[in-house]
Automatic annotation (TrEMBL):
The lineage of its organism: Bacteria, Bacillati, Actinomycetota, Actinomycetes, Mycobacteriales. This is Transposase IS4-like domain-containing protein. GO terms for biological process: DNA transposition. GO terms for molecular function: DNA binding; transposase activity. Pfam families: DDE_Tnp_1. InterPro entries: IS1634_transpos (IPR047654), Transposase_11 (IPR002559). Residues 168-274 form the Transposase IS4-like domain. It comes from the Bacteria.
Amino acid sequence: MAYVRTVKTASGATAVQIVWSTRRGSRNIEHVGSAHDEAELAALKAAAAERLAGNQAVLDLEVNAPAGSEPLPITSTRMTHLWDALCAAYRILGFESATKGDNVFRDLVLARIIEPSSKIDAERVLTEVGVEPASYATVKRRLPSYATPQWRQALAAASARRAGLGPASLVLFDVSTLYFETDAGDGFREPGFSKERRLEPQITLGLLTDAAGFPLTVQAFEGNKAETATMLPVITAFKTAHHLADVTVVADAGMISEANQIAIKAAGLSFILGTRIPFVACQGGGTT
């Protein structure tokens, strides 16, 4: 998506820019010009709007406007259908009850579904949707409560209820990493194994889903923690929290080391490995 913005420059002028953003969060900024008075600012905004239009044809309704009239200004917009649908899904999944109606948390979650962005940039996304965002100071004050294990457990409980897990459950587990643009680790954000061969500090995320891929819980680990050491703590904690008697975990071969297999059996879990089979023995004794 693209939009026009104005920013104050160090010289006191007003710069008019076109921001081209993608769903992945990347941005390209095109500088249109700098204005020193209202007339120049209006001209630059008009030029930016024309640039956004991209020479699109104008729909001619054959309606003659009265002399001296101008188009009515757009004072506000709202993506009503999109926002109402996301709020309904959030409520149906049970997250509204799990968070005790915390709209700040809800708005942060839904803003990132609409456009992946930072906490501070979520304010812009919500404004474009037509929702009054909480101030960044309010968001920062709420973050410590969102980071507590109790908050995550309440969301995991809502997900488990929605998934309808029974005494015997099949779950899927995998990990991913998030890197940070810094050179120094802090004990949690640490350089570690990266499939992208990155050297920056990172954290490891373990995700547990049901058989259909519906997320059940997520847990963060130190960036230098081995992937094979993340699975058992997540599954054991989830099994205990939701009183599951029989859990079968599906993972790729890289997640289940020989030591993990022993630990999984000791914990009363079953597992299914996704791995390559070099050959399959035929009933007649041959190979294929």
